[in-house]
Amino acid sequence: MKKILLPLFCFILINCKKGETQAVNSSLVDVVQEDKAIALDAAKSASPIPPSSVAETASKNESNSTDTTIISKKIIKNGNMRIQVGDIRKAQNQINSIIKNNQAYIQKEEFQNTDTDDNLDITIRVPHKNFDALVNSFSEGVGSVLSKNISSDDVTEEYTDVSIKLANKKIYLEKYRDMLKSAKTTKDMLEIQENIRELEDEIDVSEGRLRFIDDRVNYSTLNLSLYKEKVRSSTTSKIGFGSRFGDSVTEGWNSFIAFFLGIISFWPFFLLIPVFIFIWRKWRNRKKKFNENNE
């Protein structure tokens, strides 16, 4: 019995030692791997980030931003209207009331008074949601619509493209700023600073473009022209016979001045006429004497 128990005890003791050895070895491997990871992290933090890693990171972020960026429809609405009215001032008061009711504002106003008509040109900016209501109000109660042109421009694709590129440029900018902190030489610092400056300029341009598109999308533009024709009649217009007579006298005098100035412009030819007359007379006298001598 003792002979059987002794070998069994030795076998169990050997297996226990092997288990302990394997556990020690596995723990040593874990420690070595951990040390390697810490060393790699330290090396990465101590050395500057190469541009290739910046490009790879930016390209990954670009694909992620492309997948996650969701932009609503961006529609720019513009319009042109020309309306004939009977009274410019009355129509202008109606327009101001309609503009106020639709939360719009006048961006530009220009008035022209000629002998034949009065023209009032107004550039109106109106919230996108109120654009159709504003146009319908002008079409119904202001006057006779001579022309109307409404257009819609979908800029969603452009807006999305600029937004994605802007996000990627900001990622590049942050990476270059990190590189600048760990730059070792003056040459590297100057190159990184130049890249940062170019990126900042491009970001400003992109942000300005997005602001411009947002403004045009949020506020539509309507160019409105009011037109009143002046009828030249003494019974229907303030322009009577006396005014027309004065205009005729003025036009006649202007025509005479134009004719007189046109004649004066031929003065070189007038100087040559006496020379031609002198030569012609001299030639005629010679011919006359020659004929008399032959007779």
From TrEMBL:
Domain DUF4349: 73-281
Native species: Chryseobacterium arachidis
Name of protein: DUF4349 domain-containing protein
Presence of keyword Coiled coil: yes
Low complexity bias locations: 44-55
Residue intervals passing through the bilayer: 256-280
Stretches assigned to coiled coil: 173-216
Region listing for Disordered, in residue ranges: 44-65
